[in-house]
Amino acid sequence: MLTQELTQLIAILRSLINLPEGEVIKATNLFQTSTLKRGNFFICVGDVPKTIGFVISGILRLYYVDRDGNEYTKSFCAENSFVAAYSALLLEQPSRLFIQALEKTKLLIADYSAYRSLCENHTCWQALNCKIAEILFIKKEKRESALLLDDAKTRYLSFQEEYPGLETRLKQHHIASYLGITPVTLSRIRAQLKSH
Question: Could you write out the DSSP letters of every residue in the chain?
């Protein structure tokens, strides 16, 4: 019998790919439950990642820190999202980013090499890789174009659309960091939108 967490994962997998029943059993054997307390890390800069995660509940923030200690939020991962330091994982190199729990976060975690073995044995897992890559590519391209072409207000509205319901669970400085603005500018934008 599947746990609630595995049932949640399988539902998301089936929304992305055609997952045969025999592969469901393989997937359930691959993932283990793990919980991160608020402030704990899924990955730190310098770690060579070996796992992928699926967020059952909670929020993770992916961010960079420059030489001066300034933080730059790359993205957030909330419920029903896959999470990893993808480039470092695929290249087997040290991560250049942190992935930190912003609240108590429950994950299903799989060893990446075991997942790759699954991919070699059934095309549904290759299809999942392709689907996740497409989702991440679209997200990355939208983010890049927003940072290059959109003003701060438009980026804020796009953030609300991209992460519905997340704003009330995040600190203002994390949202501002994601948008590439200061918390003061974010407050001004919110005030302008409320007055209209």
Answer: ---HHHHHHHHHHHHHS---HHHHHHHHHHEEEEEE-TT-EEE-TT----EEEEEEES-EEEEEE-TT--EEEEEEE-TT-EE--HHHHHHT---SSEEEESS-EEEEEEEHHHHHHHHHH-HHHHHHHHHHHHHHHHHHHHHHHHHHH--HHHHHHHHHHHSTTTGGGS-HHHHHHHHTS-HHHHHHHHHHHHH-
